[in-house]
Design a protein that fits this description.
Length: about 775
RNA sequence: UGGGGAGUCGCCAAGCGGCAAGGCUACGGUUUUUGGUACCGUCAUUCGAGGGUUCGAAUCCUUCCUCCCCAACCA
């Protein structure tokens, strides 16, 4: 990779990306030349809300995969519901995707642009008898649909003639009917086990203004109709969506097949992203906005892209986070800390360090000349960040330090200021606390009187060790600023699972304000500039507020703080860390033993009993599987006639054949019972190894060839000649010297490794028992 | 309960019959004019549970358990 993009940490992107199942599918498709080498994905948001971090995961996946395989990713607005969608959202969505660093190039689409084609496909289905106009009302449709356990019943309108349907559907389009009076439905199966297949709705009447098509239409297609067709029209190869659409896939495939589109896209589903201490549902985010619980979609506490942008997160950090968490099918909730890690990891190498004080405490340096000022040159980056730059920092007799950096009675490992103690001022002198000025009434510390060591500017004293370094600003030069400390929005790890209103778990300290000071240089920077305020955290100058003389800085993310960690455990009132268990975990029920006869047909139950009597050596478990269907029983009986070993035959049928026949079923198998028996006889005689026997079985099952012929044709006889095997083992040992040493040093689990290598070297033909013995002997000898 | 999915460390997540990857977190240590960063080290005899097949099982067979999704004219 010559033009390899580098991730923030300097490692090439490709190395930071974990493999995932979607990528694997694409690679396989490419290898089989399934789409002539094309990879076309799409990101299909409905413009009814702002994009959030969960969408970012999908965006990174879809655009990232397209990029990686030199394909395309389409941006398609899935705008089939005029009552919910708005142009404001299409703008924000485009802005957010661009900001994240992705480009749809010319491939910007709207489902609404296909309305005419959808209509034509609907007419096509009607003509095929695969769709009909249903005039049941909403409630009736629900009733007719049945439940998950009971089949539905056909709509009385299902039998309408093609002509009637065509006429009605045309008139629906013409606007002759009120909302809700008719719908177009697919004609599939009202008894389908998959609820999505019970004559799903394809079109509904909506006399509503569409932000894109205006009043041209009063019928609008449903997602399940529009989505697969849009994918097909755009030649999408891999249509990647979230897990809750798994049930829709059967319908997706039905629509594509019945509409007879040229392209046949495939849908794949992955788990959506959840974050701890956060909610991700659009509905709930909308509520936070509408109820004024946050300041808008771009409130820096929101998990929206717009919120993160204003908070100061970088696109790189979000992309890197998405790569880091992977893509899989298991529901999961990622720790917010992982996102924060990503942000720090990125900012650490990019952002200038400056001095700021959040909770000011005045310090007067008594032995520093009054009225004197010094300009200290301070580098903007620490020694380990390969960036250059510096600014001057004014120093004078009166400065501010952070209240947290002073303690009257310091605990053991407190390295900062305390009465009589010394501390280094970052970039400047070492000072010593001489007196503490307190309010006589409240005891409040109002001021510190210190002395400084003039010989410590840029120098480290050799006679003593000063461990702490703190930030400061010159009082006369400091610029007052508002520091906004953002924290997690919810106190509970899983507010989405919690009982009751999710709003009751809002963190009252998700935003804390501090009036502090920043050094002059920092205040000259433009809104949108990111810094590290040394020892406090990463901040961004807000882009909306404080654009004038009194700047406002948002804390992007705090620094890791091992001092806080070790000094904190006593204070239990840390709302952000509350680990409330949302639901009591249900006690695991003990495993129930199933009655093998309970759900068998009378014939199979009879077979079960018959075999149990004639072959006592078979366990209930074996019999249970054997008597799953008549084909198996017949196969078993035929094999038994040839080889009188019920136990062996059952073993092979139940373990090995079961796997091979899982997909195509026992009805379609080519091999016969006697052939299985022949194979087992070969095995019993030691002619072939167990590994080879399985291979032969697989071959036999699809070809119907006699096992002897397969073995002879391919030369699969077992190798039991100890001389030959020893040679193989010698080769393995010389090729894996390191493992040999480890084994001799006690890593006995490597035994399997050596056997495996030897078996592979002989393509499975070696006698594994002999291999085991020989290796044992050689390795220990 | 019918159907569709998923269970590997505190949190993500590789692995697809032959040595349980990696990241985050946590915990030690080194360096440090940021208690930051960087660097080094530790952290799963075990993969939801039982039974079985195999020389060998997280991976194959089987039974069970738990969780998620589906009964919007939303997407």
């Amino acid at each position: 990779m010559s033009n390899a993009e580098t991730a923030p940490n300097g490692k090439p992107d490709s190395e930071t990306k974990a493999n995932n199942f979607v990528r694997t599918i694409i690679e396989e498709d490419l290898a089989r030349n399934k789409y002539q080498g094309r990879v076309v994905t799409r990101f299909p948001p409905e413009p009814n809300g702002y994009l959030h971090i969960g969408h970012a995961k999908s965006i990174c996946l879809n655009f990232g995969l397209a990029q990686e395989f030199n394909g395309q990713c389409h941006l398609r607005f899935d705008d089939t519901n005029p009552t919910k969608e708005d142009i404001e959202y299409v703008h924000s969505i485009q802005q957010d995707i661009k900001w994240l660093g992705f480009d749809w190039q010319p491939n910007l689409f709207h489902a609404s642009q296909y309305f005419e084609q959808f209509y034509e496909k609907a007419v096509f289905l009607i003509k095929k008898g695969k769709a009909y106009v249903c005039s049941l009302n909403e409630e009736e449709i629900r009733e007719y649909r049945g439940t998950v356990t009971e089949p539905g019943k056909p709509s009385p309108y299902r039998a309408r003639s093609v002509e009637q349907n065509l006429d009605l559907f045309q008139r629906m389009r013409n606007g002759e009917f009120e909302d809700g009076t008719h719908v177009l439905r697919a004609n599939i199966d009202m008894a389908a086990a998959n609820m999505k297949m019970r004559d799903p709705l394809l079109y509904r009447i909506r006399h509503a203004h569409h932000y894109k098509t205006g009043d041209a239409w009063c019928i609008y297609p449903m997602y399940d109709f529009a989505h697969p067709l849009s994918d097909a029209f755009e030649n999408i190869t891999h249509s990647i969506c979230t897990l809750e659409f798994e049930n829709n896939r059967e319908l997706y495939d039905w629509v594509v097949a019945e509409c007879e589109t040229e392209a046949v896209p495939r849908q794949y589903e992955f788990a959506r992203l959840n974050l701890t201490n956060m909610i991700m549902s659009k509905r709930k985010l909308l509520r936070l906005v509408n109820e004024g619980l946050v300041e808008g979609w771009d409130d820096p506490r929101m998990p929206t892209i717009a919120g993160f942008r204003r908070r100061g997160y970088t696109p790189e950090s979000i992309r890197n986070f998405c790569d880091m968490i992977g893509v899989a099918k298991a529901n999961s909730t990622v720790d917010l800390g992982q996102l924060e890690f990503s942000v720090r990891d990125d900012l650490n190498f990019k952002v200038p360090r400056v001095l700021a004080v959040a909770k000011p405490l005045k310090v007067v340096i008594e032995n520093y000349e009054e009225g004197k000022e010094e300009n200290i040159e301070g580098s903007l980056y620490p020694h380990d960040v390969p960036l250059e730059g510096s600014r001057t920092i004014p120093f004078s007799r009166e400065i501010y330090i952070d209240r947290d950096d002073f303690m009257l009675e310091p605990p053991k490992k407190f390295f900062r200021l305390a009465p009589g103690r010394e501390v280094r001022l970052r970039h400047a002198y070492i000072i010593k606390c001489e007196h503490v000025v307190q309010d006589p009434e409240t005891g409040q510390i109002t001021e510190l009187r210190c002395s400084y060591d003039p010989n410590t500017l840029g120098k480290t004293p050799t006679d003593r060790k000063v461990k702490g370094t703190i930030q400061w600003v010159s009082a006369a030069h400091a610029v007052p600023a508002t520091l906004r400390f953002y924290d997690r929005l919810f106190t509970m790890e899983r507010p989405d699972l919690a009982e009751g209103e999710f709003t009751q778990y809002l963190n009252p300290h998700s935003l804390d304000l501090a009036e502090g000071f920043v050094e002059p240089w920092a205040a000259t920077r433009e809104p949108g500039t990111r810094f590290q305020f040394e020892r406090i955290g990463f901040f961004i100058r807000d882009t909306k507020d404080g654009r004038d003389v009194h700047p406002v800085f948002n804390r992007i993310v705090g620094l890791r703080d091992s001092w806080a960690k070790q000094s904190e455990p006593k204070s239990e009132s840390q709302p952000a860390k509350t680990k409330a268990t949302p639901k009591a975990p249900a006690p695991a029920k003990p495993a129930v033993k199933r009655d093998p006869l309970a759900d068998k047909s009378p014939e199979m139950a009879a077979a079960f009993k018959r075999l149990k009597e004639t072959h006592a050596e078979l366990g209930d478990n074996d019999l249970d599987v054997l008597t799953t269907d008549a084909a198996r029983v017949a196969f078993f009986d035929a094999a038994l006639a040839e080889l009188d070993d019920a136990k062996l035959i059952a073993k092979w049928m139940n373990n090995e054949m079961a796997r091979e026949l899982k997909e195509n079923g026992w009805g379609a198998l080519k091999a016969t019972g006697p052939q299985l028996a022949q194979l087992l006889i070969l095995r019993n005689k030691g002619t072939i190894s167990a590994t080879i026997a399985k291979d032969v079985l697989a071959d036999m099952l699809v070809s119907g060839t006699d096992p002897q012929k397969i073995v002879a044709a391919k030369g699969l006889e077992q190798v039991s000649d100890s001389g030959a095997l020893e040679a193989v083992i010698d080769d393995v040992m010389t090729a894996n010297q390191a493992e040999v040493d480890r084994f001799r040093n006690g890593e006995k689990k490597l035994m399997g490794f050596f056997v495996g290598q030897a078996m592979k070297a002989t393509k499975g033909k070696a006698n594994p028992k002999m291999i085991n013995q020989l290796i044992q002997k050689k390795l220990n000898g």
